[in-house]
Amino acid sequence: MKKSTGRVTLPSEQNFLAETKEMMERWGADAIRDSDGTKLDDEIKELDAKIYTTYFVARAHNEFAEKHLEECQQIYLMSLFQTALSEKISISFMDGYFAEQLRPDFIHDPKKYWEVIDRTTGVIVDPANWEANETDETVTILTAIPFHEYTVSFLVYAIWDPTQMYNHITNDWGDKPHDIPFDVRQPYSNEIMKKYLKQWLIDNPATDVVRFTTFFYHFTLVFNQLGKEKFVDWFGYGASVSVAALDAFELEKGYRLRPEDIVDCGYYNTAFRIPTKTYLDYMDFIHYFVAKEAKELVDIVHESGKEAMMFLGDNWIGTEPYGKHFEMIGLDAVVGSVGGGATLRMIADIPHVNYTEGRFLPYFFPDTFFEGNDPVIEANENWLTARRAMLRSPVDRIGYGGYLSLAYKFPGFVDYIADITDEFREIYDTIKDVKPYTGVKVAILNSWGKLRTWQTHMVAHALWYKQIYSYLGVIESLSGAAVDVVFVSFEDIVKNGVDKDIDVIINAGDEGTAFSGGKEWMNETLITTIRQWIHEGGGFVGIGEPSAHQHEGHYFQLATALGVDKELGFSLSTDKYFTTALEEHFISADATSFDFGETMKNVYALSETTEIIEYSDGEVHLSSNNFGKGRAVYMAGLPYSQENTRLLMRALFYAANKENEFTKWHASNIQCEVHVYPSIKKMAIVNNSMVEQQTTVYDGRGQASQVTLAPSEIRWEEYT
């Protein structure tokens, strides 16, 4: 491959000038950035490259924060559950939390801003019947009911930024001062953030891009008494709460938030919870405030002649890039961490910015770059999964973060990244702004809709969890597949119906979650609209517990369309005769085995018309059913793999009644894919594995050819 340059951002650090110049040449980098814990020498800033400088709006200003501790950021927390053994019970509400990170707020009246709840009944304990003690950090209930459980919802000040805390512990920063986060909703903090930025811009003339990391409120990350992560929710809004915010919310929305609206029984409104109207109101309230204040900072940056970039992480809460207020900010760019195809698309598809950038893995930290470890393994896995998505929608730039001096010690890694950067530029230069061929249009249906585009079933930015990998595989598979994907909410369908250009709706998740829908399926308009849409020719793919909510004799509310339901024990007396799987089916034509992940138990066929594709252990795991002119497919789960990507693609085409078009542009080998760009008459034949592959390729006109691809090869071909 011909050596190319540009569109790559290189991390650097002090006393590393010669090596930085060498690495710039090796990787074709045209931008240099610092990282948390590093600084750039003046000589490095003078290199022929754009200079990104990390800027913390609401942390790393301890000289100010220490003088205004009353303006620290705040968060609502909930104590551990405690059983009352008598009418008087004392709860040590800070048990299990890290005192170096959190300090209870006794500046504001606990009787007004805290809440004690009888968790056995859900009843709020009258503030007159409990006392809060600042000295020993306890709440004593005076009128408890024996053997009821109680919790305290309480406000704390966040006195250590959680990202700096994580980096501090990971890199053993010793006595380095703890960054104190302050709340820009407060008067002095709001003033200093603008004043300091103006002076900082004057003091940093070599900076070309101000990399806001990010703006004001950190995703929810709370540590336990051992200094380890206790609760992490990349989507959490808990750290945006304060007394000032509560008062402002009441003034704007006309009603007051309860602590429980934030604490949410200790679930803290994770993205898996079906959002309440109150919580959605609060999110909108925060979105608007953050966008308005961030716009002022971006305007200041632009007035100085520099670009404003936002890191989609750390303090990103309130800057949701698919939210209705995001455009107001006026950012030039967004950069985010790429964990795979789904996170690549999450960044690449962001609207209202001039360019996007993906920060690839691994991070150049000592937990990966240590003697005896091979960082190429992680880099290769990260690149191959993200590359699939990039061939559908590329980011404009790629880069890395951390300590360049660590990566420099691994020459094999340096060589591998040199190849990646060249391959990225070739992809970008070929297909940027070129619409790829798509065979079907798919709508992912859940409670969040467009707001959380490419973000379903994530907990902490694409980390693996037992409860989610069987669903996260759906969007990971789709991120690099020849399909057009949109995200719609239940409310969207209730208000507007199903868009006419949608071929297939996917509903995937466990019952009761925001992703399956739970009680949302009690809405008569929703259920009848979708039933009618399927009956008139639409396709539906349900994964896990789709449309699940026990009601009027069904667990799956779309059971008659799906042709299956789940046995909860209520109908064990009813025999279930339909257990024979078909010998062959279009959906499973490429399958040699099945992997449904954690799978789903006790799903059974409703009648002989259900097309059972996989049946084992006395239950259905894969099936299809005709419903009027439409089709509905059921899957018990879908972890990400090349095999399951092919299975899903076949299911989508079958549900859409387009199976005759499945091999229009196609690679027969499941380890390979074909991406087609009609407007430029080019196709990319891709080997997604690290071994040589042979495949039959179909060229869109029914003609087939045999192709042999080297490990991870992309072969570009023109067609007429």
Cα radius of gyration in angstroms: 27 Å
| Largest sheet, spatial ordering of strands | 1-2-3-13-16-17-18-19
Structural class: alpha/beta
The rounded distance between the terminal residues' Cα atoms is: 25 Å
Number of individual domains: 3
Largest sheet, if any?
Answer: 8 strands, parallel, barrel
GO molecular function, one term: 1,4-alpha-oligoglucan phosphorylase activity
Domain Lacto-N-biose phosphorylase central: 441-659
Organism: Carnobacterium iners
Protein name: 1,3-beta-galactosyl-N-acetylhexosamine phosphorylase
Polypeptide structure, described:
The protein has three domains: 8-59 and 171-177 and 184-229 and 274-431, Glycosidases (TIM Barrel, Alpha-Beta Barrel); 440-661, Rossmann fold; 665-718, Immunoglobulin-like, CATH 2.60.40.1180. Helix content is 26%, strand content 24%. It starts with 7 loop residues before the first strand and ends with a strand. The strands form nine sheets. An eight-stranded parallel beta barrel has the order 1-2-3-13-16-17-18-19. A seven-stranded mixed beta sheet has the order 21-20-22-23-30-29-28. The radius of gyration is 27 Å and the shape is globular. It is α/β, with parallel strands linked by helices and 720 residues long. Strand 10 (130-133) and strand 11 form a beta hairpin. GO terms for molecular function: 1,4-alpha-oligoglucan phosphorylase activity. Residues 441-659 form the Lacto-N-biose phosphorylase central domain. Residues 6-438 form the Lacto-N-biose phosphorylase-like N-terminal TIM barrel domain.
